[in-house]
Each structure stands twice: as C-alpha cells, then as structure tokens.
Model the fold of this input.
Amino acid sequence: MTRGRREVKRLSANSWVPLLVSDDGEVIGESDAIIAWAGAHAAAQPTISAT
Done:
C-alpha cells in the first residue's frame, strides 16, 4: 500500500479515493458529497478595485 493510501485509510478507515479533508479537518469521502461540499463552500469571487 502506498503512503498516500495509508493516509487515506488512517483518515477514513477505507483506502478508497476521492477523499477531501477540509481546512477544519472534516473528512468527506464520496464524490457526490465532495461536490455538494464544494458548492456550499465556494470561495468568494475576488473583487477588482477600480483605482
């Protein structure tokens, strides 16, 4: 097992990917759940200053 797969297994008890670990440590392990999380946590659009 590769080092990356060992880390996935440590985080989720499975060696399946994809696996998302958020900045606050939340572990999300299903593609649909990752897509939903990304939609709910979209980064703010940068604003361009007109100076």
Remarks:
- The helical segments are 3-12, 31-40.
